[in-house]
Sequence to fold (328 residues):
Amino acid sequence: MNALLVRALPLVIALAFAAGPVLAQEVDHSKMDHPPSPTTEEKPEEEKPVETVDHAAMGHTTPEVDHAAMGHTMPAVDHAAMGHAMPPAPTEPKEPIPELTDADRLAAFPELEPHPAHGDSINSYWLMDHLEAWDADDGTGLGWEATAWIGTDLDRLWLRSEGEAIDGSIEAADIEVLYGRSVSRWWDVVAGIRHDFGEGPSQTFAAIGLMGLAPYKFEVQATAYIGQSGQTAAQVEVEYDTLFTNRWIGQWKMEANFHGKEDELRGIGAGLGAMEAGFRLRYEITRQFAPYVGVVREWAFGGTADLRREHAESVSDTRVVVGLRFWF
Fold:
């Protein structure tokens, strides 16, 4: 046996040397149709969206089931037969309503004691509406217009005065003492006397008039006068306040005077004698005290203008005024 192995050993070695080159050759995988392996640089292909399958086109729709044909309908429930229906509302009250009596009406609407419509306390009001000065041709002019009253809500004693002076000499002025009676919410009827003084003879008139607040807050005074020797006159005043702010207030005023006949001694003609219009802007430091500046224009008409021309006086005049308004 050992001799046989010794003889075969050279043959085995020879076969090993002959097969060595064949086993050492490289294997060409590209010729073996192997799919290439992905690399790090190559990106995988995007996934394709899954297509929606139209089952209706494929005849896979589910047929509707007719439950009525199959006898699956639910029978209607009669709630009235089961006692579930609401009972009808009663048409008659459970208890009869008692008949309304006079005692019931009296208890519901008792008679109230009358209350006083107006107070009977005594009050007063004093107003210096205009106290002003201006530069006149003959010197310094001074003018005033004041109103005051004392009394109750219905009955009052009124005092009114206005006038002009040049260098301390009164040219024209008047004072009125009137009794006033309230006749409506905003209006008083006044009656009394008026006394005129200044240049020329003084004169006294009986006065009657109406004063109050007209619609749109126009303050109105209209007074008629009957004087000595049958002299008659009338005066109309209208005022209106414009509030620019709570303290800056503009006052518009117009005044017209009429006379029944001529009074040459006092420089008054018949008809419309004089008219005055002005605007005054005041600043209320307090509600009771306010300085102001203004412009006033005066015209003379008819016989009054003729008498002024005869005395070489102007028939119109414009003046800038500075003054004070205060009340208490």
